[in-house]
Design a protein that fits this description.
Blueprint (H helix, E strand, L loop, with lengths): L3 H11 L5 E9 L2 E6 L4 E6 L2 H8 L4 E6 L11 H10 L4 E4 L6 H9 L4 E4 L14 H10 L1
Parallel strand pairs: 1-4, 4-5, 5-6
Antiparallel strand pairs: 1-2, 2-3
């Protein structure tokens, strides 16, 4: 359950320009819903244009976790990335399922350059074997 009062107090205390809202979500028949409690409780709050527009005044960026694919290194949720590129009024970083350097390019293409990607489990500095930190840095310097 999102506490609008708590979010407003945090924004007033530190400033929206210093806040990134981390919204974890799970796919349902209705789309993507925000999930809480270690992704076990699916809320009625959808990841959609209206929700992101409402929250945009409280932060400077969104971090969207695709909980269904997070940590699996089995590929990103391409539909969610495409949606985020279409609807987010703020910069957005997507997390979930990244497994290779090609995923950076795929996210860039699907979102028309509007969504960034964070690579976790697949990154060599976190014990992964799919991507090296050096390759990520090189890709980012080129793009």
């Amino acid at each position: 359950h999102l506490s609008a009062d708590r979010l407003d107090r945090i924004r007033k205390e530190v400033g929206a320009e210093r806040l990134v809202l981390d919204l974890s979500c799970r796919r349902t028949d209705a789309g993507w819903q925000i999930a809480t409690d270690r992704w076990q409780t699916i809320t009625e709050t959808a990841i959609n244009r209206e929700t992101l527009a409402e929250l945009a005044g409280h932060c400077s960026e969104f971090l969207i976790h695709a909980a269904d694919v997070e940590g699996l290194q089995a590929g990103i949720d391409t539909e969610l990335v495409t949606l985020l590129g279409e609807i987010s009024p703020l910069p957005v970083t997507y997390a979930g399922g990244a497994r290779s350097l090609q995923d950076l390019q795929l996210v860039n293409e699907l979102s028309q350059g509007k969504v960034d990607l964070t690579i976790g489990s697949a990154l060599d500095i976190f014990g992964g074997h799919g991507v090296t930190l050096e390759a990520c840095i090189a890709w980012n310097k080129q793009h």
